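Structure ticket #2291
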Amino acid sequence: MKSEKRKSIKFPKVGQRIIRSVCAVFFCFVIYYMRGQQGIPFYSALAVLQCMQPYKDTSRQMAKQRAGGTFVGAIFGLIVILLEIYIFGDVIDGGIITYLLISVATGCVIYTTVLLDYKNISYFACVVFLSIAVNHINDANPLLFVMNRVLDTLIGIGVSFAVNSFHLPRKRNQDILFVSGVDDVLLTREETLTSYNLVEFNRLIDRGANITVSTGRTPASLLEAVGSIRLKLPVIVMDGAALYDIEKKAYLLTYVLSSYQSKMIMDTLERLGINYFANVVMDNVLVIYYEDLTNPAQESIYQKLSKSPYRNYVKRKVPERESVVYFMIIDKKEKVSEVYRQLVEEGWTDRYKILTYDSRDYEGYSYIKIYNKDATRKNMLTNLKAMLNLDKSVVFGSDPATCDIMISDSDNNLLVKQIRKLYEPIRLIK
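Resolution: structure written out below.
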C-alpha cells in the first residue's frame, strides 16, 4: 500500500500591516503612560486597528469615519448626560424611562449622520454614544469620560497615521519600467492573486512605480484575472500583438496580419479541414469570428467566453479586406501536431509567428496561434518604452530566455519583493 503524501502546511506571511499594527498599539500605551495614565488606552488601540488599512486612501477614509462617528456620538452622549444631571434627574429613576431616553437619542444619532450625509459613520457614532450613555452615565465625573473618549480616539487616529506614514529613507527609481508576466509569475498555479501580492503591487503603483504586465492573454482575460490591480500604464497583450490602455479601454497599437495574409491563412486552414477563431480589433472592440464548433473544447471556450462584455463572438467568415490580429486553433493533440508539421513544411514559420502548445484546461487538446511575424513581446516593449520615454526596463517571467529576472514560484510573492527591492532601495546616506 502506497503511503499518502502529506501536504505541508503553509503559514501566511506576516505582512507590514500586522507589524505596523503591533507598533501602533504599543505607542498608544506609551502615550497613555506619558499622560499619567489618564483616559482609556483601549479606545486609542481600537481606533488604531480600525484606521490601519492596506492603502492610504482607505486609511484616510476610515479615519474620517472614526473621527466623525466619535464626535457625533460624544455630542449626543454629552447631551443625554446633561439632561440626566440637570433636567430629568429628579424625574426619572434610572430605569425604563432612562432606557427610553437613550433609545430615542440613538435614533437622533443615526438621523444626524443621515443629515450630514455620512451614513457610513452611523455604526461608529452609535457605539460611542452607547458606551457613554449606558456604561458611564453614573460615573462620578461622566463629562471627564466624554472628553477622554474623544481624545483617546484622536490619539489612536494620529498614531495610525504616523506609523502608516513612516518609511525608511528610500530612493525611487522612476526611470525603470517593470514588466511582469501573468501566468505562474503574478498569478498562482490556481490562477489567483495572493493578498500580499495584490496589496503590495497596488502600493508600489500608488508610490509611482512604472509597472505593467506582458501576457499572451487578451485584455478581457487579463482583466478577469488581475482586474483588482490598479494598473495605470498600457499593458502588452496577445503575446505582443497588441498594446492596450486599460483606463481608456483602447488599443494603442497592434501588429496585424494584412487582409491578404489573413485570406491566405484562412484558405490554407480550410484546405486542411481545420476550424479556427479569428481575433479582429474593430473600433477598440475585440471581435472573434468563427464558422463552426466541431469539438467539445471549441464549444466550451465559446460557452465560457462569449458571455464576457469585453468579447464579441460573431458566427460568420471574416469579412473581406479585414486584418486579423491572430488566429487561434484548438483541436485534438494528434490533429494539431499534423497541421503544425504541414505548416512548417510549407514555410509558414518563416512568414508568420506560430505558437503551439498543449492545453491546460482541455486534456488531450493542443493550440496553434498564428500572428504577424513582428508581433513579439520584445518589439511591443520597445514601442511602450518609447511611448513612455523610458530607456530602462526589467522583465519578470517564467521563461529564462525571455526575461531578465526569473520568477519560479508566484506563491511566495517573489515578484513584488523583487520589484520593491529594485524600485525603492534603502538609502541611509544621501
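Closing remark: The first helix runs from residue 16 to 34.
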